[in-house]
Each structure stands twice: as C-alpha cells, then as structure tokens.
C-alpha cells in the first residue's frame, strides 16, 4: 500500500470535507494561550482516505506513547497476528532411569513479552494469577519428562538480542521504574518487581515485601528516616544478588512501587530454579547467563537441534501481545516486539537495525515524513519526533490491512478500558473512540479512530508539547477536540476513491 497525498484527488477531498467542523476546530486551536504549548492536529476521512483537516500537521513534536502505533503496526505487518513465541528448555540428553539429567538444563529465551502470569484475553484491566505460574508449568513438564536431579544446574540463554544499553533519551529515573526496564530476549513478569514497604521508627528497618523474589535473589536494606525526610526506593544488582535500597519517612503511610529488574534474564533463571525445587527437582548450584555482545550476529535457530526438548511454553498470539502494548502502554513489550520484527526480517535483533527496518517500512509505504525520527519503539525517548500527519497516515494504512481489525481492537476504548477507561465517558456525539494515549512531562498526545453513530469514520492525531499548565486541562481540551470532530454533521457517504490502500 502506498500513500497518495490528498491533493491528488480534489473531488474526493471536497466530498469528504463537506460539513466538517473546520471553523470550530481552527477557532479553538487558534485561541490557545502560550501556557498550553504547541498543538498539532490531523484528521482523515477513512471512507475516502482523504485528509479533511490539519493544524500544524507537519510540525515535528514529541509523540510519547503514540509512537507505539508505528511499532505495533510494523510488527503485525511483518509477523502476522497469529505468531507465537516458544520459551523452551533443553537437555543434552534425556534423564536416566534414576531421574538424573547429565549436563545443565538450558532455558532459551524466545522474546516472549508475556512470560508472566498475565490473564488473557485482556479485558478492561490487567489481571494476574500466581506470579510463578509460567515456570511452574515448565517445571511440571520437566517432572513429567522424568527429571528429578540436575547436578549441573541451569543455563539461561539470553542471546536472542544483543545486551545493549537502554535507548538514548531515557532518563536515569526512567531506568529505575518499571517502564524503563532493560530489554532482553528472556524476561519474566514484565521485567518488574512489586514492592510494598511501610516505615517503622526512625533508624529502624522498614517492613518490606518484594514479589517476585525467587530463591532469595533480592535482599532488602530499606530504613526508616525521621519525619518529614525524603522517601526513595531503588533496586540494584550487587554480585550474584540484588539489593533493594531506600528510605521511608517515619509517619507516612505504606508505599507501593513497581521497579525495574536490573537484569531480567537472571530473574528468569532464578524463577526457574525456584519452581524446580518446589516441584521436588534438585538443582545444582551453578547458574550461568549467556549474553550476546552488540555487533555480533543473531544466534542460529538450529543451535539446539542436537539436544532434547524437555519442556516448552507457548505464548498467547501476537495480536494479544499487541493488545497489552496498546491498552496499558507497556514499554518493554513494545521494545521486545520491535526486535522480534527485526529478527523476522533477517535482522540481528539490535535496536539500531530494528529502528532502521521500521524506518524503511514506513518510507516504502509513504507513511513517514522527513521530520520523523524514532530513538526507541515505545515513545519514552525525549529525542523522538513525529508529525500528526505521519501518525494519521499510519492509522489510515492499518485500517485497510488484513490485520487492521485486530490492531484497531488493541487500542483503548474510551470510557471502557486501558489508558482511556476514565476519559470521554460522556461524549455528546455518542461516538466510539479507540485511541492510543501518550504522556510525558509537558507532553499529552492522542491518536486513533472515531466511529460516528451514522457509521462515518475518521482517523485522527492530536499532539500537544511544551505546555506549562496541568495535564488534566490539556487532556480535557484534547477530548473536547475529539468530540468536535465526532459531532460533525451527518452527510451522504462519498463514493469509493482509490487514494491509497492498493495492495503492493
């Protein structure tokens, strides 16, 4: 499919634009005070594939998490909605009649972002079962395979992606929080830990609970400070274990945090060890993690062909994984899926190559503009720049693909689920809105689809940067714009116009 600019079909543009509330939108946008920052808006009529409204549509602005629209469309186009990930455990041979397995168990990361207890299908909010569930399943399979003792311990194969630093444009604070976890081809529980902590008396240890904490991997060193002192928590790797450090001010209530795992592959290896021991399988003390250095080729798919597959966990479909990315704005999952698309195209799984392949994919389909630049897959980087025009083009392209329906349904439904569950609950237009949100300091964005009660549909993008007022006010203004667009008059449906959407 290749984009054809709206000017190439003026009759279609005139038909699609008739009755559209351009004056109301322009009056609203033209009267925004400087404190409300820079605005960019683009709206496309999906029936004609014509742009019916733009305001600063070519301005390169920070997209925040609406950047995930590009990533997830690319991934679905490359891999297809039915793709799955297979996390596997190999042995050098089958266990003997005595249950002893000669050689280590090798846990092979397959890039599954949902190696967790997350409940599928996703409905309204994230639900989780017992955190250890995926490794309990694998351990049960190993028991059924006759494994009782593994003297040579565990090898965790995290070779799928190179061990790279976090993307440029991520802050030090990002790297500590759940949304800035390291990107590995082997990860467990979204590469995060849940921390509940409560202060006691000044100078005394705080009461702390950390989950998951397999095999005692995490030690706590959180103290209670005096009343009014600062409070902070940080999880750091120290040798073969991790330490939760921090301070909580006396007199304050309990604190809940989701913190990034320092090394996701290590957590996965320890979670497997813990599950094996709970299932009665004895494991030797050795635990090794296999990493790949940047610039080295991706491992060959056949490297374990001479070993025995002892256990396997198959992920949910890629369409379900994309739903999690877009509904809850899961950063690490977006980063993993971008690298999976790279591997699917013969790349090496590095961020640099994956980003180049995404850029070429956009260019080939006429979906990008020269101003666009992406430093990551999830939109957390402050270096990213997209235009409202480019975002709307991606939406229009995706709407006309075989996977477009699944992609659209992956977007939050206003007033119902995901990051839009508390927004636009009372649209005067009565329209259905499915859209991806984006939030950073001084940044609010929204891009997606509007379906009016009469059946007419629009793709839209709204980007707001550098505002100095509240996030709430800007979100309210964005929602008002959506309602204006959705409330445009009912018109006869235009004829068919082949502006873009022809198969390549």
TrEMBL record:
Gene3D superfamilies from the UniProt entry: D-Ala-D-Ala carboxypeptidase C, peptidase S13, DD-peptidase/beta-lactamase superfamily
Organism (species): Thermithiobacillus plumbiphilus
Statement: the UniProt record of this protein carries the keyword 4Fe-4S: no
InterPro entries attached to this UniProt entry: Beta-lactam/transpept-like, Peptidase_S13
MF terms in GO: serine-type D-Ala-D-Ala carboxypeptidase activity
Enzyme Commission numbers on file: 3.4.16.4
Key words of the record: Carboxypeptidase, Hydrolase, Protease
Family: Belongs to the peptidase S13 family.
Enzyme's top EC category: hydrolase
Lineage: Bacteria, Pseudomonadati, Pseudomonadota, Acidithiobacillia, Acidithiobacillales
Protein name: D-alanyl-D-alanine carboxypeptidase/D-alanyl-D-alanine-endopeptidase
NCBIfam families: PBP4 (TIGR00666)
